[in-house]
Amino acid sequence: MYNWKIQRERSAFIALANGEIFRGWSFGAPVDKVGELVFNTGMTGYQEIISDPSYAGQFVTLTSPEIGNYGCNEADMESRSLFLNGLVIHELNQPSNFRSEIALDKMLIKNNVPGIAGIDTRRLTILLRSLGTQKAYMHCSDEEIYEEEAVKRAQEWCGLDNQDYAAKVSCKKSYVWNENGKYKIIALDFGVKYNILRQLAANDMQVTVVPASTSAAEIMAMKPDGVFLSNGPADPSAVKYAIECARELIGKVPLMGICLGHQILGIASGAKCERLKFGHHGCNHPVKNLASGEVEITSQNHNFALTMNNLPDELEITHINLNDQTVEGIRHKGAAMFSVQYHPEAAPGPHDSEYLFKQFLQILER
Hints:
Blueprint: H1 4-8, E1 11-16, E2 21-26, E3 33-40, H2 46-50, E4 58-62, E5 66-67, E6 86-88, E7 91-92, H3 104-110, E8 115-117, H4 121-131, E9 134-139, H5 147-156, H6 166-169, E10 175-176, E11 183-189, H7 194-202, E12 205-211, H8 216-221, E13 226-229, H9 240-249, E14 255-258, H10 260-268, E15 273-289, E16 295-306, E17 315-321, E18 327-332, E19 337-340, H11 355-365
Parallel strand pairs: 3-4, 4-6, 5-7, 6-8, 11-12, 11-13, 13-14, 14-19
Antiparallel strand pairs: 1-2, 1-9, 2-8, 3-9, 10-12, 15-16, 15-17, 17-18, 18-19
Helix pairs in contact: 9-10
């Protein structure tokens, strides 16, 4: 039985770099960490959210107030581990679901990730929307630390800008995801989610996953029919080796990118990338397909985006975000290459954008 009383006795707080303090109680690993504080507006799918490697270096605030109800299980993991720096929620609940194998707090403890409950997540979200993403310090350990010192530690942290986090979450060795499929795909792992690999496999693709640092020459030596550039965390401009790799691959082999992979392909083609005020995190973001005129509800997780201005002539915008008009998709006019900023594999989220994997298949079939 979940001992809620004991959990509430473990006081904790999160200190923002602007001096704000949010107090609650610890329910995860009793450790202190620094991180970039963001919010996710999804109503469900907390396990898929916390196991998304794109959250590496970040504290994720869940705006849905009731968390933990259905527990966690191995089948719903989206990566080999948890890479986020911490979790912030309003109310932690005891799991009650036949698929539950481990409670959320135990999952965090197992992966050495701190969590804070009892937070006014509505006020925190409004603050982040107003001021933008904040560096923060999460205090969940037994160490005695004054709140002023925690604020100072948050301020002094280097943050995620110009930091290569893709190398931290990528696989260390290549591996075969599935052996069956008509077309051989090499997937560059910048923090790939398992459901992306499932979608590629479901569309008649044999997928081999390679580390983020794999060179274009090494990839072409494998004689792929296509190359996929995955999602991933932090600043795309810091992943210089991947930008160079993408630049060498354009025009030589069909390419598809998602999230960080999309940004890398854009930069490799001459586009610019900028940090958003508070990013896009959730599974309810409206995106317009400019070719069809249809609106897709999408799953997203990123803090950077390609800029609309000064886009190279060889690139065409294919999708835009209807909330803030940012670039959500591009295609190359002279090469077999396209990418999207959002996550068409969802997990969690709607399935509106699954057609993009079929679009990649159609390019391979030409």
